[in-house]
Each structure stands twice: as C-alpha cells, then as structure tokens.
Amino acid sequence: MSEQYGVDPQFLDALLERETARFERTHQRSKKLHERTEGSMPRGVPLHWMANWPTPHPVYLSGAEGAYLTDVDGKSYVDFCLGDTGAMFGHANPLVAEAVSRQVHAGTTTMLPTEDAAAVGEELSRRFGLPYWQLATSATDANRFAIRIARIATGRDKVLVFNGKYHGSVDETQVALQDGRMVPQPGVAPNAVDTDRTTRLVEFNDVDALEQALSERDVACVLAEPAMTNVGVVPAEPGYHDALREITRRTGTLLIIDETHTISTGPGGYTRAHGLQPDMFVLGKSIAGGIPAAVYGMTAEVAETFERYTAKDGHRISHAGFGGTLAGNALTLAALRTTLEEVMTEEAYARMSALAERFERGVTEVIGKHGLPWHSTRLGARVEYLFSARAPRDGGEAKRFRVPRLEAAIHLHLLNRGVLLTPFHNMALMCPATTESDVDRHTAAFAECVAELVS
Ligand code: PMP
C-alpha cells in the first residue's frame, strides 16, 4: 500500500493491464481508423494530444449529442469531459445548432459586422461588468492579444504567470518553477523566446512572492485564472484576490483574468461570483456553444489605449497585431449571441451546479468509505478529484500530488464502463443535458474502481 496516495501499486498495475486489454478487445474499429490516419497525420490524429489519452489508441467518435458520445465501435459514453469545457453547454445544443445553420445559409464570414455584434457586446458588458469587448478565434489568441494591449498600455515587456498555469500555447507562458527557479516548460521548445526577458513566474497564493515580483514595476500584466484549473484545482485562499488586485494596482500592473475554465462557477464566471475587478477578462472554448470563438473584455481606460493604437491612419493598410481573418465573423457572432442569450442562463447553471454537487457527494462518500487521503474540489459545474487529503496551495504542490498512473487507471476503468473524464487530470463537468442518473453512473463506476485498487 502506498502511504502517499493509499493504493496498492500491485493492484494498480493489475487493473491497468486488465483494463487496457479490455479496451483493445472492444475498440477494434477505432484501432483500424487510427492505423489508417497514421498514414497521413503524425501520431494518427488531427491534433497531437488526441493520442495522449490513457488508452492504447484514441477512441474515434461517430457522434455527440447532449451529454453523450458514441464511437465507431458502437459504444456510448456519458461525457464529463465535454471537450475540456468547449462543449460545456452540451454537444449539438439544439438552440446553437439552429442559430448556426441559419447563419451558414446567410453567409459565414465577410470582413464586416452583423447586427449580432451589438447584441453580443451589450450582453458581455452586462454579464461580466467590463464595458468594451473584442473577439478572437481561441482563448490562446485572446490571451496573446490581451498581453499585447497590456504591453502597449504600460510600455513594459514582462508578463507574470503562476507556476502550473495553462493559458494556451502562448509562448511567454511556457515556463515552470524548478527548485525555485524559472525554467522553460519541460516538453515545450522555447520557440526562440527569451522567457527571462518576457516572463516572471511565482506560485499562486504567495502574496510575498507576488509583491516582490511586481516591485520593480517592469511587469505589464498578471495573467491569472481566478482558481487554477489545469493542475487539478488550486483554489484562491481567502484574501488572495484582494491582495492580487491591490498589488497590481499599486505597481501599475494590469490584471488579466482568464475565465476559460472557471466560467463553470456561474453565469458571470468567478469574476462576478466573487466581485473581482480585472482590467481585462478572457473567455474562450464554450462561449459560442462549441463554435471556435473567444472574447476579451477591457476597462474604458484600456479600451482608450486600444482605440488609439488601432485607429485608422488615413487610407494606409494597418497591421496592429490583433485578430485573425475569421475572428468575429457572422457565424461566430450568431453562435455567441444564442449561447449568451439562451443557453448560459441562470437556470442552466443552477441545474449544472446541483448535479456537480451530487457528483462531488458521490466521490466524497467513496473516498470516505475507504479512508483514502484524497479530496475533491468544486467550481460550480466542475468537479475535480486529486490524490491528496486537502486542496493544493499552489501549482508546485498540485504537481506533487498528481499520480499519473493512478489517474490513467481510473480513466481507463471508467471509460470501459461508458464514463468519460477529462484526460490528464480528474475533471468532470456537467452540461445542461447531464442527468442525475449519469452522475450516479460515474459514482458507481468510481466506487467499483476504487474498491479494486484498495482491496
Ligand atoms: N486558458 C485556459 C485557462 C485554458 O485552460 C486553456 C485551454 N485548456 C486556454 C486558455 C487555451 O484555450 P484554447 O486551447 O482553446 O486556445
């Protein structure tokens, strides 16, 4: 028995071996499709990490609807991954599908706005509290653009991020702490970016480290998730957000809050639920109901800089460094408007959060029954379990609490029983179509898996 995480490593090995064999037996068509795709795509997938699930090869899907997936081998799954938040409002949401198909027949992309732009801007302002908004195609892009504005506004180069963060493939953020020193993110080529020049990295919840890192007043912005969600969940300690805001204001550093995952907290995100006051706000993935889109909001002051910087210069061609040809197009706007006005409702969130509570209760009961040193955390509609008795205080601690083989074993076991968690951590997300019996299905499969691992 491992004292550290409460599971017998021998049982873990046996379970992994057996579940891998079971997966292989029952996913022959996926295997064949993977072999075929390997002929034209590196690693046999359109995006490399699709091949990183804990399965011997990816599951190839034939459909997705509501909270469910079906694969080419005829299996179906309750989907708690929901495209790692991209499908947080359900697959093939009928309202989004209708808006999108209407717009597909009325033109998708033109280089000009539609009436939906006004409605989307107004609703974003009302919902999230910042008065001005721009669109991007992904949260990664939105973060890059927010950092660019912060640099223009402050005349400073550096961005401060937190150890264990993920904000997309933004070059400046590809760093990690090792023995207290910032190093290039293991596994990510530095891409010729000198992160010593562009980046400061500290642990989340460490007010002193933050104070020190911003004291030279050479940091343009802090880019932060309000609770970290990409190394397990690291909640903000009481008072941390007040300190973060006070120190950033005092040192003339802009504060960018990235709500791409924490939008699970409620219809106005963590920001509205906790009264945060960011200078900029980023949200991608789910915001257009699964159509690629991201938004970034800004204060009137930041918007003034943005307007000045991007202003028309006679009839010259201007490349300001923001955008993407397809950003903010008619299709995106139609999907965004419908998602905001009709899908991301108070009622939908109330339902999703209640289901997440039920999910968390189930997990906690199983953990308690076996006296395991594990815990779970909930952010509205999102639940995460981790192999430590309490929530990690920062990204460094969260990384130490992870047990990748155990994680893989649980994921495989659940997947073989028709339950899908988000890979690379133990995250489950509820969508408006998730039901109580879906949640109970997870609880039963999780209970079965844990019983095997400890007995
Ligand atoms: N911000 C956060 C907090 C994220 O978790 C992610 C992706 N997991 C991103 C930004 C990047 O999103 P995308 O890959 O859609 O650009």
TrEMBL record:
InterPro entries: Aminotrans_3 (IPR005814), PyrdxlP-dep_Trfase (IPR015424), PyrdxlP-dep_Trfase_major (IPR015421), PyrdxlP-dep_Trfase_small (IPR015422). GO terms for molecular function: pyridoxal phosphate binding; transaminase activity. It comes from Haloechinothrix aidingensis. SUPFAM superfamilies: PLP-dependent transferases. It holds the Pfam family Aminotran_3. This is Aspartate aminotransferase family protein. Keywords: Aminotransferase, Pyridoxal phosphate, Transferase. Belongs to the class-III pyridoxal-phosphate-dependent aminotransferase family. Its cofactor is pyridoxal 5'-phosphate.
